[in-house]
Write a structure and sequence with these properties.
Length: about 160
């Protein structure tokens, strides 16, 4: 998708966001871009979401942001895509020096929910964790894409192993 610009941030962590009207699921990568780790969801109704994101970006020394892009199953863009685009414009205002990429998030929430059901996690705990686990799926997909499709990232990954 639109994450190739993030390749320039190699050696820095990436922050992933699963955008929702109420909650922002958040995950962070390791600096080698092998593993994504879900963090806690941000309740955008009870706090300044951009301030909370800024703290996470500083705390984890993130060099770029990837946002899940909720395309329809047939590949078309719906109203949710427009909301994500608007959110990304706001992100760019708050974090003008960070590259922001979009990654297809189709079925990330479904996969997160399914894995938690298989792990026998209670419905209450699933509701608390699904957004950030979905962000982790989005980020892992981005990391895998960057390692396999962007030449300088693939070369760096091969030489570091």
């Amino acid at each position: 998708m639109q994450v190739d610009a993030l390749a320039a941030t190699r050696g820095q962590r990436l922050l992933a966001i699963d955008y929702g009207e109420r909650f922002l699921g958040v995950a962070v990568s390791d600096i080698m871009w092998h593993i994504s780790t879900p963090l806690f969801p941000i309740d955008s109704k009870s706090c300044n979401a951009f301030q909370a994101l800024g703290l996470l970006i500083d705390q984890h020394a993130c060099g770029g942001i990837v946002v899940g892009y909720p395309m329809n199953m047939n590949g078309s863009e719906g109203p949710a895509c427009e909301r994500v685009k608007e959110f990304c414009l706001k992100l760019k205002k708050f974090f003008p020096t960070l590259p922001i990429g979009l990654f297809d998030e189709r079925l990330s929430t479904v996969a997160a929910e399914r894995n938690m059901i298989e792990a026998d996690i209670s419905r209450k705990k699933r509701k608390q964790k699904v957004d950030s686990l979905a962000a982790s799926y989005i980020l892992q997909g981005t990391l895998d894409y960057l390692r396999n499709h962007v030449p300088e990232v693939a070369v760096a990954a091969a030489t570091s192993e």
